[in-house]
């Protein structure tokens, strides 16, 4: 065998080897990437589910709180508490109300009461 | 490669190819030919339709005070197919939900025959308890998670709550168990208030957890729109309190108070007695649920006389100063009496002295047909169109059905039947300058984002009489609430009040008018020169001393108290000096209350 041909026959096929390695790495990478993406998708899904649950819970709590506020601040409830003496309010008596400017003053020139408060028996 | 090796390689390849072909064929068979069957099977085992809860709209007053709201609650559901430890689960549920453990255990482990699986299996859907409070459900969920017990889910629902209980019960109404409006605004506005559930198709794993990436079709829930009423709870509270005081004082069979804005027709307050608690429906009698303001008819009595006077004045047949012979208190041919006998009265004084004979003579001058037309134009005999269920038309017979004396009875509010809302709407015509307004109870409707979906602006039905006529009638009505009128006790210090009392005898079962049973009423407005509201107080069968159950003594004082507090609440500026010696002037100085005797 001539010298020049013998040298070529023993060379390592680097190009093929590199190609195989690259293809192998790509295939492995793609596989791992797929698994990673899939896991990430599931993890994100679980996170979405958890956040959705929290949101629903928050909305429910918000609604429950609003209902409680509505009950406690309702006219009927406040009136009841006022009657019980829980809210320390006193009726506004006419001698404490004055109208400035618009109303005609009484003949005596005094500021007049807005209305006549009468005690109920 | 020798021949034998080649043959072996060929056979191996052939067998492998055959195997792959067989597997491929099977795969195609499963995926294509039997696709639907296996898809349905998979969906049945792992697919679920998850409900998305929709909220019913709220109802509030004009200032946004909530009148009907939703209290979020949960329904606890057990999927027994996922339960591994029924004993522990039953124990935990029993403690949290206050249910008997043995019953729970039996329900969770009870097996029923499954048609699809052809064997006895435990139930995948057991409703353990409904209407579980939000806090209790959250505690239970955390305990289940801590003990790693599976198979329990919580479905969102809501209870309808009425924060004001008894107040405004006939207007707000209520819903049934299915969440549909049954009465009041809940019923008439049900199409707006109603919510629609959404859904989401999901896939679950064998542990019952959702696999989120495989979510299917999804439809958002549609929340109900929010209804805002024309009612002002500040005024409503005043009305309710004064009505309660009147009930305590007179112990009547029933009572109604309506406050209306004469310029817009908006109902500011409406209360009936008897009433009921909207949050406690059990045991409420049907007649208690009746909204007397629109579903009961009464003979309006003398509160009808302004209609007669306005009609005659509008036709220019008389002037307010025209004098009528009122037969010295007894009109013989039609057997009509006046409580305050006079020989002659002007048209003005016919109203002020509430003369039945005078009213009859005015109507006779107008004529049957014309009088009937005016009664209709004032809104009697037809539904007002208010957005509340069960409104009746009242009864106004056409002239061809009248008896010979009908023309003498109708002008004083007999032989006609009207709802309290019709009476107050008719008075609004006088108060606002002659226009019949449609009573409104709903101000607007907004969606979940607060955008107005539907608005209900003031609606004029028709012009009934001229402005000049209303001014003439108004002057007379102011005199009714004066020293010489029948409604002295309706006066309000600082304000000029116009109004008319009514005392209608009730009909007995025999068809005759009772001398003991009366419907006492007062309908009026203030300030007379520029009315902020028209109010009707109607009290049915007040228990008083004999002869004192009349509108001027029973209903007028209630109007006065409501008017006084309402004027202060609305910030009306007093502009009227009571003449020396008037009831309120004397009371104002004395600081006492003559009306509450």
Provide structural commentary.
The longest helix of chain A is centred in the middle third of the chain and has 59 residues, at about 15-70. Chain A is rod-shaped. Chain A has a domain at about 5-75. Chain A is mainly alpha-helical and about 120 residues long. The model of chain A is unreliable at about 115-120 (pLDDT under 50). Chain A has helices at about 5-10, 15-70, 75-85. Helices cover about 35% and strands about 20% of the residues of chain B. In chain B, helix 3 (about 85-95) runs antiparallel to helix 5, helix 9 (about 235-250) runs antiparallel to helix 19 (about 550-570) and helix 12 (about 305-315) packs antiparallel against helix 18. By secondary structure, chain B is α+β, with helices and mostly antiparallel strands. In chain B, the strands form seven sheets. In chain B, strands 2, 3, 6, 7, 10, 18 and 19 form a seven-stranded mixed sheet that branches. A five-stranded antiparallel sheet of chain B has the order 12-11-23-22-21, sandwiched between helices. In chain B, strands 1-8-9 form a three-stranded antiparallel sheet. Chain B has two domains: about 50-195 and about 205-225, Penicillin-binding protein 2a (Domain 2) (Alpha-Beta Complex), CATH 3.90.1310; about 235-590, 3-Layer(aba) Sandwich (Beta-lactamase), CATH 3.40.710.10. In chain B, strand 21 (about 500-505) and strand 22 (about 515-525) form a beta hairpin. The interface between A and B is large, with 41 and 48 residues.
Measured by residues with Cβ under 8 Å of the partner chain's Cβ, the largest interface is: A-B, 41 and 48 residues
Helix count of chain B equals 20
By secondary-structure content and strand pairing, the structural class of chain B works out as alpha+beta
Structure annotation, total helices of chain A: 3
Which value, in Å, is the CA radius of gyration of chain B? 36 Å
Oligomer: heterodimer
**What's the overall geometry of chain A?**
rod-shaped
Spatial gap, N to C terminus of chain B: 130 Å
* Strand-pairing-aware structural class of chain A: mainly alpha
Radius of gyration of chain A: 44 Å
The best one-word shape of chain B is elongated
Q: What is the fold named in CATH at topology level of the largest domain in chain B?
A: Beta-lactamase
């Amino acid at each position: 065998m001539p010298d020049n041909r013998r040298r070529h026959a023993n060379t390592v096929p680097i190009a093929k080897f590199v190609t195989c390695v690259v293809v192998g790495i790509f295939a492995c990478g793609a596989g791992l990437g797929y698994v990673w993406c899939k896991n990430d998708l599931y993890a994100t899904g679980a996170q979405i589910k958890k956040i959705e649950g929290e949101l629903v819970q928050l909305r429910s709590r918000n609604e429950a709180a609003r209902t409680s506020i509505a009950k406690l601040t309702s006219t009927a409830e406040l009136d009841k508490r006022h009657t019980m003496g829980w809210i320390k309010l006193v009726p506004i008596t006419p001698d404490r109300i004055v109208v400035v400017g618009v109303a005609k003053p009484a003949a005596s020139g005094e500021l007049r009461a807005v209305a006549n408060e009468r005690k109920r028996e | 490669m020798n021949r034998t090796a080649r043959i072996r390689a060929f056979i191996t390849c052939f067998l492998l190819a055959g195997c792959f072909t067989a597997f491929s064929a099977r795969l195609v068979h499963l995926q294509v030919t039997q696709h639907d069957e296996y898809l349905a099977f998979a969906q049945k085992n792992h697919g679920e339709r998850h409900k998305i809860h929709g909220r019913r709209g709220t109802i509030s007053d004009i200032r946004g005070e909530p009148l009907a709201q939703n209290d979020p609650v949960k329904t606890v559901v057990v999927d027994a197919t996922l339960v591994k430890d029924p004993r522990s689960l039953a124990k935990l549920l029993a403690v949290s939900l206050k249910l008997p453990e043995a019953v729970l255990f039996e329900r969770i482990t009870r097996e029923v025959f499954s048609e699809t699986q052809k064997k006895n299996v435990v139930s995948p859907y057991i409703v353990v308890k409904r209407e579980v409070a939000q806090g209790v459900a959250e505690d239970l969920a955390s305990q289940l998670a801590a003990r790693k017990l599976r198979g329990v889910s919580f479905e969102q629902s809501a209870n309808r709550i009425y924060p004001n209980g008894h107040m405004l019960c006939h207007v707000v109404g209520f819903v049934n168990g299915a969440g549909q409006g049954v009465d009041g605004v809940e019923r008439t506005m049900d199409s707006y208030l109603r919510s629609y559930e959404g859904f989401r198709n999901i896939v679950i794993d064998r542990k019952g957890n959702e696999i989120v990436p495989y979510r299917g079709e999804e439809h958002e829930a549609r929340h109900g729109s929010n209804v805002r009423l024309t009612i002002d709870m500040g005024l409503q509270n005043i009305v309710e309190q004064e009505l309660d005081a009147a009930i305590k004082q007179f112990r009547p069979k029933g009572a109604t108070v309506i406050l209306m804005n004469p310029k817009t027709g908006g109902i500011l307050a409406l209360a009936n007695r008897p009433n009921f608690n909207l949050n406690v429906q059990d045991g409420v009698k049907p007649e208690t649920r009746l909204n007397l303001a629109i579903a009961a008819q009464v003979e309006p009595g003398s509160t009808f006389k302004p209609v007669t006077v306005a009609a005659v004045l509008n036709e220019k047949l008389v002037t307010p100063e025209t004098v009528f012979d009122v037969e010295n208190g007894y009109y013989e041919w039609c057997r009509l009496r006046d409580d305050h006998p006079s020989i002659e009265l002007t048209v003005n004084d016919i109203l002020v002295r509430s003369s039945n004979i005078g009213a009859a003579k005015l109507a006779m001058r107008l004529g049957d047909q014309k009088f009937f037309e005016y009664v209709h134009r004032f809104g009697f005999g037809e539904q007002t169109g208010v957005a509340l269920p069960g409104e009746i038309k009242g009864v106004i017979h056409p002239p061809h059905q009248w008896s010979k004396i009908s023309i003498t009875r109708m002008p004083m509010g007999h032989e006609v039947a009207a709802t309290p809302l019709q009476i107050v709407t008719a008075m609004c015509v006088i108060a606002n300058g002659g226009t019949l307004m449609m009573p409104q109870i709903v101000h607007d409707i907004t969606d979940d984002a607060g955008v107005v979906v539907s608005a209900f602006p003031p609606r004029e039905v028709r012009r009934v009489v001229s402005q000049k006529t209303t001014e003439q009638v108004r002057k007379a009505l102011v005199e009714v609430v004066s020293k010489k009128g029948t409604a002295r006790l309706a006066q309000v210090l600082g304000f000029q009040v116009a109004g008319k009392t009514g005392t209608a005898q009730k009909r007995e079962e025999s068809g005759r008018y009772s001398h003991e049973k009366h419907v006492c009423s007062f309908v009026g407005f203030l300030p007379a020169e520029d009315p902020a509201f028209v109010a009707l107080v109607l009290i049915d069968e007040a228990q008083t001393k004999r002869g004192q159950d009349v509108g001027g003594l029973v209903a007028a004082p209630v109007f006065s108290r409501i008017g006084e507090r309402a004027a202060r609440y609305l910030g009306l500026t007093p502009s009227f000096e009571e003449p020396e010696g008037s009831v309120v002037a004397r009371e104002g100085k004395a600081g006492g209350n003559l009306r509450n005797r």
